[in-house]
Design goal:
The protein contains 20 helices and 49 strands. Helix content is 23%, strand content 25%. Strands 14-11-3-2-1-17-16-15 form an eight-stranded parallel β-sheet. Strands 4, 6, 7, 8, 10, 12 and 13 form a seven-stranded mixed β-sheet that branches. A six-stranded antiparallel β-sheet has the order 18-30-31-37-33-34, covered by helices on one side.
């Protein structure tokens, strides 16, 4: 939104504010900024720590400032940013962080000491804006000061009457009547869901009978009363339905209890929750405190949410009394006006709610800070029922983000809408990763796979969920915990450095997308109906379906009650509120994301807002840096008329349009059965560039048609490679990743021209890659090690690298038969008690005080250490064969390797390959450290340490924390351990 724009929608002094100031927001780290290739090259090896992962740091116990400082120091030592401090209740039965400590002197003492440690390490510390979640409660202080700001919803009670009668109408907030065209088959009452004790779930209490649908005549809708009970004389003809609306209380899908559609909420919250930071750390805001995290999935209210702000905004925007069309949320009409009525209601709710959400970002923007969002992204149904307009809400934040639970990061679905908003808006993209993955889903390989994936999806700000201040983890439902109880914690800087470099590149330029996928939310709104608006179809929040409006403050909830009503009960049952037709739209839309991603075709998703910004130019849709050659339409029932005209105009000019199902027959402007839309869609279906794809895009993409063609193609060695294509400073950056445990040798054709270089996020090295220029692009041979991920950069301003150039590929990955020496032991095994992690359940290691010798390598469980989580050292000797020449030229380079040019990156002459390791390893040869590896391949350059004759090798292996919690996981060095040489 443009600064300075103000929409008056309130009464008296109240107004719905789009921007609070005419001043432009200060620059912050949430913005993507222009950069030159040379600057990228210079900073790639050590980007600013702002690009390193942040920790979601849960302050979930009574505060100890010294402990906060110690933990911040340890977190920063692994090149994490100590991240975002989140005041929370305790999840393992220990004392909570007292609500009164949040924002108290002891809170700011602890925060200040943690901030000082972050600053010493050159890292950053932000904060979460709320105690627990959802946001805007200020630990219930907002409701305590404003007891009338509780959430309100409207329930509809119907009374069917025949012509000419006089009927008694009960008390109501307002009452509307309409003539009935016909009654529809009755709706069965949904079954009562039972809990684990075979008792009705709380949401079944006070559940009303379901609304029985009818077709009405919308032109007969009329307001007939409000307030106290009254009598009404029916018209002389026809059957009539009376809709009596009353108010009730419900905390919503997030359990927030506030009325998020009331414009008074945001100012009260900012004063209570944000101003204290400005008072305490004003000179640090926007500097070492770069931004804030809003952990708020979203709930604008429950079912037919209501506020006076919404009422007045609707009147202002649509010049109509919102009450008149309320029956059309539940019933349809022959004229098709219900489509327009539902769309306008959702649009108005989304306006008001997005302004509430975005107000925090505007407060932070004014202080040079970014604001992170964390909204429901899982399905179109969740978005409609809890957020309204997901795109509009995300645009309100300076750093939009996703809440990526478990291993969902391996799938593109939950990322693509938010990445599109960030790309169109030129902002960075946050993802909170791996929450609730548990220890079962958390290990060095999965965190590397997740890093590869989220880089592919365009994430540029990674938040690891999480680290708990309480070090008791038994029974915690929100694991993993990333801190020092994990044996591989000392290796974590390898992951944080990798992510920092990948995120640094993702923080610049833009996605080079060729395809535009149209978001079908308008159709979901139109197809909502009784399931969405009728409290007879409850969600998962464990409270009665309908509750009386509170007659006193509801702020004084015990922590346990707040936990019970919060969204950790998610996923809510909002999917169940919507029809089969909506589910089919959602499925086709989601499958399109999967098919395009699998086909390595770059695309963005556009709502009506972005479609309106695009201009048709020579058969493309163009805006700023973006240009699209093809449009994909999910099944739809409506489109805005101007958007439909733009899509048809694009197709007329030669653009390609791929339709996945039903074309719209209605519009958001005029309702269902809009003649103008029907004419436009009939024309679209007859144009040469239109293709109907009712079975999806996969088979179409395989034929490589114009408009759905990847810029990277396999010539040989194909596999499920992940790919992202960015454009930065006129150069093409391709992120390529192998998320499998197998190496791959591949020949790729890049449909680009110029020189090629490989930017290695593990080491920070940049090296030229041999390529062959052809009339149809560049041919490049690449070797992918297990779980490899790197940037391949094509610079069209330089010529293709000549064939005689040499380049070190990422990993050695030679076969075992290429090894010249195998280390078969025996192995001396020891456990050093001084190096072990701090565990909740340590095991007795008294029998391991002395070292022992093992002839073969096997799982630690075979040695009686099945519940041991920690570090074990292995030692053995090997003798270099007399016929192997050891060239001790410093780093071990020879003349053939000097042809690399200015980079001059040495190729290791001797590599120790540990084979299979579970799960991390460090190597010393003759007492000299030869490096660490957190994920495969476990290959180590030992060139500078090896010597003629006998050599002593020590390998330290760490396993997973899982074992100490009774989750058996493979542990140890398994081999085969071999020595390889690159000397010809």
């Amino acid at each position: 939104m443009n600064a300075g724009r103000l929409i008056q929608v309130g009464i008296g002094c109240l107004s719905l504010v789009v921007s609070l100031s005419s001043a432009q927001p200060l620059s912050n780290w949430g913005q993507r900024k222009a950069v030159t290739l040379e600057t990228l090259r210079q900073n790639f090896v050590q980007p600013d720590m702002i690009y390193a992962p942040f920790v979601f740091w849960f302050w979930d116990q009574p505060l100890d400032p010294a402990k906060a400082a110690d933990m911040a120091r340890e977190i920063a030592a692994q090149r994490f940013n100590p991240g975002y401090t989140h005041a929370r209740m305790n999840m393992v039965g220990l004392p909570d962080l007292p609500r009164e400590q949040w924002l108290s002197p002891v809170w700011f003492e602890a925060f200040g000491k943690a901030l000082m440690e972050a600053q010493k390490a050159g890292t950053y510390l932000g904060f979460v804006d709320e105690y627990w979640w959802p946001s805007f409660r200020a630990a219930d202080r907002v409701l305590k000061e404003n007891p009338d700001l509780y959430a309100r919803s409207l329930q509809c009670h119907t009374l069917d009457c025949t012509a000419g009668k006089t009927v008694e109408i009960g008390p109501s907030f307002f009452t509307v009547a309409a003539r009935v065209e016909k009654f529809l088959p009755p709706v069965a009452e949904p079954p009562i869901k039972m809990d684990s004790q075979n008792q009705p779930e709380p949401q079944s209490i006070n559940r009303p009978k379901p609304h029985q649908p009818a077709i009405i005549q919308s032109q007969t809708l009329r307001l007939i009363g409000s307030g106290n009970a009254f009598t009404w004389q029916l018209p002389a003809e026809g059957n009539w339905r009376v809709y009596r609306f009353t108010q009730y209380y419900h905390p919503g899908a997030d359990g927030g209890r506030l009325n998020y559609l009331d414009e008074r909420v945001a100012p009260a919250f900012h004063r209570l929750a944000l101003e204290p930071y400005a008072q305490q750390f004003g000179d640090r805001l926007g500097h070492s405190i770069p931004g804030a995290f809003v952990d708020n999935e979203g709930s604008y209210g429950y079912k037919i949410a209501w506020s006076e702000t919404l009422d007045h905004h609707y009147r202002e925007k649509f010049a109509r009394d919102i009450r008149l069309w309320m029956p059309l949320l539940l019933d349809e009409d022959d004229e098709g006006v219900y489509a327009k009525a539902r769309w306008e209601w959702f649009d108005a709710v989304s306006d008001v709610y997005s302004q509430t959400l975005g107000s925090t970002s505007r407060w932070l923007d004014a202080r040079g800070m970014y604001c992170i969002s964390n909204l429901w992204e899982e399905t179109l149904m969740w978005q409609a029922a809890a957020v309204g307009d997901f795109f509009k809400a995300q645009r309100g934040y300076s750093m939009p983000g996703t809440d990526c639970l478990a291993l969902n990061a391996l799938d593109p679905h939950d990322f693509m809408e938010t990445r599109s908003v960030t790309d169109f808006e030129n902002r960075r993209f946050m993802s909170e990763i791996m929450g609730a993955a548990g220890f079962w889903g958390y290990n060095p390989i999965t965190i590397k796979q997740v890093a590869n994936s989220i880089t592919t999806w365009g994430v540029s700000h990674v938040v690891a969920h999480g680290i708990f201040m309480t070090r008791k983890l038994d029974g915690n439902p929100w694991l993993p915990d990333w801190f020092d109880g994990n044996p591989f914690w000392p290796w974590m800087n390898q992951w944080t450095d990798f992510v920092r470099r990948a995120s640094y590149i993702n923080s610049h330029g833009h996605i080079a997308a060729d395809v535009l996928l149209v978001n079908p939310m308008d159709s979901v709104w139109v197809l909502s109906g009784p399931g969405m608006f009728d409290p007879a179809f409850p969600d998962r929040v464990p409270v009665p379906a309908v509750m009386d409006l509170p007659d006193k403050s509801i702020a004084d909830f015990a922590n346990e009650e707040l936990k019970r009503q919060s969204s950790w009960w998610c996923p809510p049952r909002m999917d169940e509120w919507f029809s089969e037709q909506v589910h089919k739209i959602n499925a086709a839309y989601s499958q399109a994301m999967t098919d395009l991603t699998s086909g390595r075709i770059e695309y963005l998703v556009a709502d009506r807002h972005y479609l309106r910004k695009l201009n048709q130019q020579s058969g493309m849709l163009v805006a700023g840096d973006h240009g699209f050659h093809a449009v994909v339409l999910p099944p739809m029932v409506v489109l805005p008329v101007d958007v439909a005209e733009k899509i048809v105009g694009f197709a007329r000019a030669g653009g390609r349009v791929f339709s996945l199902g039903e074309l719209p027959s209605g519009s958001t402007d005029n309702g269902m059965n809009d003649p103008k839309i029907k004419t436009l869609m009939n024309e679209l279906a007859g144009l040469p560039g239109f293709q109907n794809c009712p079975k999806g895009l996969k088979s179409i993409i395989e034929k490589k048609p114009e408009g759905l063609f990847s810029t990277v193609q396999f010539e040989s060695g194909g596999f499920g490679m992940l790919m992202q294509h960015r454009r930065i400073d006129g150069r093409d950056f391709f992120w390529l990743a192998n998320n499998t445990g197998q190496p791959h040798n591949s020949k790729l054709r890049l449909y680009r021209w110029g020189s090629v270089s490989l930017w290695d996020c593990e080491t920070g090295q940049i090296r030229p890659i041999e390529s062959q220029q052809t009339n149809s692009g560049l041919l490049v041979d690449l070797k992918f090690g297990p779980y490899d991920g790197f940037w391949l950069v094509v610079d069209l301003k330089e010529k293709s690298n000549s064939k005689n150039q040499k380049a070190k590929l990422q990993t050695i990955n030679q076969n075992e038969q290429d090894a010249f020496l195998r280390l078969d032991g025996p192995w001396t095994i020891r456990i050093d008690p001084t190096t072990q992690p701090k565990l909740e359940h340590p095991v007795d290691l008294s029998v391991w005080v002395r070292e022992r010798t093992e002839p073969i390598l096997q799982d630690w469980g075979q040695w009686g250490l099945g519940k041991f989580s920690g570090l074990m050292d292995y030692e053995t000797e090997f003798t270099m064969p007399n016929n192997v020449r050891i060239n001790k030229k410093g780093t071990g380079t020879t003349s053939e390797h000097d042809e690399l040019g200015s980079e001059n990156i040495p190729v290791p002459l001797f590599v120790l390959d540990l084979g299979k390791v579970r799960h991390c390893a460090e190597v010393w040869v003759n007492g000299q450290s030869c490096g660490k590896r957190l994920w495969p391949p476990f290959e180590f350059d030992i060139t500078s340490a090896v010597k003629p004759g006998p050599n002593r090798v020590r390998v330290r292996v760490g396993n997973l924390i899982n074992n100490s919690y009774g989750q058996s996981a493979e542990s140890g060095l398994f081999g085969p351990v071999v020595l390889r040489s690159n000397i010809k």
